[in-house]
Specification:
The complex is a heterodimer. By secondary structure, chain A is of the alpha+beta class. Chain A is built from 14 helices and 27 strands. In chain A, the strands form six sheets. In chain A, strands 8, 20, 21, 22, 23, 24, 25, 26 and 27 form a nine-stranded mixed β-sheet that branches. In chain A, strands 1-2-5-4-3-6 form a six-stranded antiparallel β-barrel. In chain A, a hairpin with a 4-residue loop joins strand 15 and strand 16 (184-187). Chain B is elongated and about 85 Å long. Chain B is an alpha/beta fold. Chain B folds into three domains: 9-70, Elongation Factor Tu (Ef-tu), domain 3 (Beta Barrel), CATH 2.40.30; 76-341, Rossmann fold; 352-436, no CATH class. In chain B, helix 2 runs parallel beside helix 3 (179-191), helix 8 packs across helix 9 and helix 8 (352-374) crosses helix 10 (406-420). In chain B, strands 9, 13, 14, 15, 16, 17, 18, 19, 20 and 21 form a ten-stranded mixed β-sheet that branches. In chain B, strands 1-7-4-5-6-3-2 form a seven-stranded antiparallel β-sheet, with no helix packed on it. In chain B, strands 8-10 form a two-stranded antiparallel sheet. Classes of the chains: A alpha+beta, B alpha/beta. Chains A and B meet through strand 1, helix 3, helix 5 and helix 13 of A and strand 5, helix 6, strand 17, helix 7 and helix 8 of B. Strand 1 (4-11) of chain A pairs antiparallel with strand 5 of chain B, so a sheet runs across the interface.
């Protein structure tokens, strides 16, 4: 018997409901506003009153309006067809809505129930299976989409029957399983899962040991993120958070990408809608959209659904991870999600923590980041969810609750610096403040030696030291003046500028420079370090600056040229002439 | 509105604060309008049958036995072509002595456009100001504020931009405008002969601050009528959004909400986003572009209002007085148009983005040189050339009194490069240099 209730109070999107029967925390209910059913979630129960956050505008709602409880938490539907879809935070399909404007209470089906999928069985009758075990697969684009024993199935089952190879719709019965009591359970291609609960069904979650390549030099070379790792990008507005995230989404070495536009600008999502179908995945040569799901709850869409959107996105990633795939989740921005929590906590008159955020903010954030990771499946395969979130610190000040809480939870930190953005040194990732904890993992270091080169890690460390030294010297020059320091200081400063301009800076809008594969990164860093080893004789600091500017210019032209192409080699020749023959 | 049959009148207020009143009433819906002692008010909180109303004109002199009438619907605006050329107050009533506007009644603050149905902004909006067109190109469907100190001529610049921009309608939402500024806008619009395409919703400083909360929604409801129903290109000007946010904080304060940063309500981000996100390029061809003003306290952009604004808008235009040349310039460092790459090099010349980046980078080098100079150090030859370049760049490009076409701006920049720098010092792609470097 599901509970019912009536509205007794309204403050913005927090509604108080007096209910009959039993309700659960986070249970979903629907409020009837003159025939329009608006979805809401229970966020607190007190006596016979449930406080619900409504996922829609509450305009026109009255005291006494009827409420029906659904008996389950917020769920998403998981099945073939998720990829290349565009959803709102509650997994409504935005593409199948008719009107230009979003209508209240208009909920659309996430998956196409009529589409035909070609099914090939993997398991056979008589097999013993557990939740998340693979029963068969369909081709979703080029990806083998596994049809699994639903995550919600407990204990062990025997396969009674399984559908033969052929064409099916998602609601067709693909297998019948028998539980220990002999009861039969039908399995279709679709399953439901509550978004706020992490998907299990794997054997273990080892430490990440591989690098997820992004083609972005300041990440891959200096502070790589691990496959199944976590990272975050804080930065004041205008520092290029979104451009950097889009670059990672376009180029990241993952099979499935889920982008959660959480409380951000609608036009940024439109950019994805417009660009991605045109773009080609550099790793597979297929259309980018085929591997991408977009969860879009822009800043003007209801605040409560904003909170749900990151969970919806994470659940979809976990679903693909259970298929043995590499998924990448990009959430822009987790600060907006935290603000949604703050708004609700505020309306419920909870005692506030720092900056009026709820006191459990830190716990909520670390719980969420903990859902990422690489997992070992029961069949021995691995799958991964890599998570990169952006943070929009208020006033660009990193000493604020969301940044601080995230710093505790994420292992990579890509700090976007206002000073770099002001100088148009993009991506504005600060090379000194940023870090990747994965570089401290011996297994990651081993992997890098294998993947990139035996002396790679030493080279990277050398580059980092040159940058650090360059920064110190720049400060000294500022205090003492150009003439106040020896010429060797100027040389060291320009070596760091060389690394900055050639390695750190990257033109995200240039078709060639924007994507720098690992081989090319290795080549360029080695080349730059070789330049740093060339002994020069300078009469004064101006001569030094002029020389290095010339070198930088040539190397940048190389960055803009196709790797090892004719023009690339031409610039290389120019460089060699400049370095070794004009002394 | 007040002449509905069997309308119930309440005459007993339970509580009065500076901005709100509370009373017992039945069957009241959230967000609906009411009249309290003849003043307009809106339902902001329902707790059982206890209703809290926000009184727009303030509660001064309202007695506990004030007459309260509920209207049964949220605030509305009557929209039609008749709006053109008219001036209204925050409630949508004419203040220019003209007749009431007849037309379709629309609830203000309506639903959002489905992001999937939006089109990518792609139409350049030229303004003639090089600091905008060259460095921070505007695109239709964009939302962008001017960040300016109160003593800067932001309203003048905005009027200038509005009148030069190629659009079908201009809608002014004036919040806390001084009477002088209101008359300035009126005069500028009239003397440009553009009055018939301009609609103004104005709340001046002599009117109650909470009334301002209605202005953006009124202006944007009118904008949606022209953009959605009439497929027109609409430009909305909102000035000053800082005063709008101040009004928000007044109301939340009176409702005992816990303030977050800078005593602003915790929902400031969502409140501002709801307004700015009305900017849209519609699939039918109509568009709404929003140019706003956010005044700063002594240039402080870390304050909650500009900070939240910056995260919502697609860039910001930063006005600054350049002490070296005495000009008001569009600051090239902090200013940004996030949509510029959608038109740069596509609707403008191919060298646009390279020229822009190089010119700003060299301007940054000039700032370094300036720091050196101020610290009493010797300047290098390059430093001196940078400083010379910076002055010319401020006067010929960044100054807001520049009014030239885009091609001319690009040519000017190339001339400056050639005058002060070698080709390699600009760091521009060689192919562009070969094509555009001015012959000596």
């Amino acid at each position: 018997m599901k509970a019912t209730g009536i509205v007794t109070g309204i403050i913005s999107n927090l509604v108080t409901v007096r209910f009959e029967g039993d309700v659960a925390q986070n249970e979903i209910c629907h409020i009837d506003l003159g025939g329009t059913k608006m979805m809401a979630e229970v966020i607190k129960v007190s006596g016979k009153n449930a406080f619900v956050q409504v996922y829609e505008s509450t305009r026109g709602l009255r005291q006494g309006d009827r409420v029906e409880f659904d008996g389950h938490m917020l769920e998403v539907q998981l099945g073939p067809g998720l990829l290349s879809s565009s959803y709102d935070g509650l997994q409504n399909n935005l593409a199948t809505m008719e009107d230009v404007f979003l209508k209240r209470g208009e909920y659309t089906a996430p998956l196409d129930h009529e589409k035909i999928w070609h099914f090939t069985p993997i398991a056979k009758p008589g097999d013993t299976v557990y939740a998340a075990d693979w029963l068969g697969e369909v081709k979703e684009g080029w990806l083998p989409h596994k049809i699994m024993v639903p995550f919600s199935f407990k204990d062990e089952y025997k396969i009674k029957s399984i559908a033969p190879e052929g064409d099916y719709k998602i609601d067709d019965t693909m297998a019948v399983l028998t539980d220990a009591q002999g009861e039969e359970h039908k399995v279709t291609m679709v399953q439901k899962w509550p978004v706020k609960v992490a998907v299990g069904g794997y054997v273990e979650k080892p430490r990440p040991f591989r690098i997820m390549e992004t083609g972005v030099r300041c990440m891959d070379t200096l502070n790589p993120i691990a496959e199944g790792g976590t990272g975050f990008i804080p930065g004041p507005f205008g520092c290029g958070k979104t451009v950097l995230q889009h670059a990672i989404a376009k180029q990241g070495d993952a099979e499935v990408i889920v982008m959660a536009a959480c409380g951000e600008r609608a036009n940024e999502v439109v950019e994805i809608f417009a660009e991605f179908p045109e773009l080609i995945d550099p790793h597979t040569g297929r259309h980018l959209m085929e591997r991408t799901t977009i969860i879009c709850n822009t800043s003007n869409m209801p605040v409560a659904a904003r909170e749900a959107s990151v969970y919806t996105a994470m659940t979809i990633c976990e679903y693909y991870r259970a298929m043995g795939m590499k998924a990448l989740l990009l959430a822009d921005s987790t600060s907006r999600w935290a603000q949604a929590l703050r708004e609700m906590s505020n309306r419920m008159e909870e005692l506030p923590g720092a900056d009026a955020f709820p006191v459990d903010l830190s716990a909520i954030i670390s719980n969420f980041y903990a859902r990422a990771g690489i997992v070992k499946l029961r069949n021995g395969q691995t799958g991964a969810v890599t998570f990169i979130g952006t943070v929009s610190p208020a006033g660009g000040n990193l000493k604020e609750p969301v940044t601080e809480s995230t710093k505790k939870a994420a292992r990579c930190f890509y700090s976007l610096a206002q000073a770099r953005a002001d100088k148009k040194r993009y991506p504005a990732v600060d090379p000194i403040d940023s870090y990747s904890k994965y570089l401290e993992y011996p297994e990651v270091v081993e992997y890098l030696k294998e993947r990139v080169g035996k002396d790679w890690v030493e080279k990277v460390n050398r580059a980092k030291n040159l940058i650090r030294r360059g920064k110190e010297i720049a400060e000294q020059i500022n205090i003492l003046g150009d003439d106040g320091v020896p010429i060797s200081y100027h040389e060291q400063f320009w070596k760091s500028e060389l690394i900055d301009f050639v390695i750190l800076q990257q033109d995200a809008f240039d078709p060639i420079d924007s994507l720098c594969p690992m081989e090319r990164q290795e080549y360029m860093l080695s080349l730059v370090l070789k330049v740093c080893d060339v002994p020069f004789e300078f009469d004064d600091y101006e001569q030094c600056a002029a020389k290095y500017k010339e070198i930088i210019n040539i190397l940048r032209q190389m960055n803009y040229s196709e790797f090892k192409s004719e023009s690339f080699n031409k610039y290389l020749e120019q460089l060699n002439t400049l370095l070794y023959h004009e002394q | 509105m007040s002449s509905k049959a069997f309308q119930r009148t309440y005459t007993r207020l339970e509580a009065i604060t500076k901005a709100t009143v509370t009373l017992h009433a039945q069957g009241v819906s959230n967000d609906e309008l009411a009249t309290v002692a003849g003043r307009l008010a809106q339902v902001v909180k329902i707790k059982g049958d206890l209703i809290t109303l926000q009184v727009f004109a303030g509660t001064e002199g309202i007695p506990t036995n004030a007459e309260v009438l509920f209207h049964g619907e949220p605030p509305t605006l009557q929209v039609s072509e008749e709006l053109s050329g008219r001036f209204f107050n925050a409630y949508g009533d004419p203040i220019d002595g003209g007749p009431k506007v007849e037309g379709d009644r629309r609830q203000i603050g309506g639903p959002s456009v489905n992001p999937y149905k939006r089109k990518q902004p792609s139409q350049l909006i030229p303004t003639g100001i090089a600091g905008i067109d060259l460095n921070n190109t505007l695109v239709s469907g964009q939302k962008i504020p001017f960040f300016a100190d109160p003593d800067q001529p932001y309203n003048q610049v905005m009027a200038q931009v509005a009148l030069r921009a190629d659009v079908d309608k201009i809608i002014l939402g004036g919040m806390g405008l001084s009477n002088d500024d209101y008359l300035y806008f009126k005069h500028e619009f009239e003397s440009a002969g553009a009055l018939n395409k301009i609609i103004s919703f104005v709340n001046t400083t002599d009117q109650p601050p909470v009334e301002r909360l209605l202005i953006p929604d009124m202006a944007l409801t009118a904008a949606e009528f022209f953009a959605v129903d009439k497929n027109e290109k609409v430009l909305v000007l909102l000035t000053d959004m800082t005063l709008y946010a101040d009004a928000l904080s007044i109301v939340s304060n009176r409702m005992d909400q816990i303030p977050s940063k800078d005593s602003m309500p915790g929902s400031l981000y969502s409140d501002l986003a709801k307004i700015y996100e009305k900017a849209v390029q519609l699939p039918s061809g109509g568009s709404i572009t929003i140019i706003a003003v956010t005044t700063l306290n002594d240039g402080d952009i870390t304050h909650a209002i500009p900070d939240n604004t910056g995260y919502i808008t697609e860039g910001q235009l930063y006005l600054r007085a350049d002490t070296d040349t005495g000009k008001v310039i569009i600051d090239p460092f902090r200013s940004l148009s996030r949509l510029k790459q959608l038109v740069q090099g596509k609707q403008t010349r191919e060298d646009h983005s390279q020229v822009m980046n190089a010119s700003v980078r060299l301007y940054a080098d000039a700032q370094n040189a300036k720091t050196k100079l101020e610290n009493g150090f010797d300047l290098s030859d390059y430093d001196r050339r940078c400083l010379e370049y910076a002055k010319a760049y401020a006067v010929e490009i960044l100054s807001i009194d520049v009014n030239i076409g885009l091609t001319e701006m690009l040519d000017t920049a190339w001339k400056l490069f050639a005058r002060y720098f070698s080709q390699a010092e600009t760091g521009i792609k060689q192919a562009m240099i070969d094509k555009y470097w001015p012959a000596a």
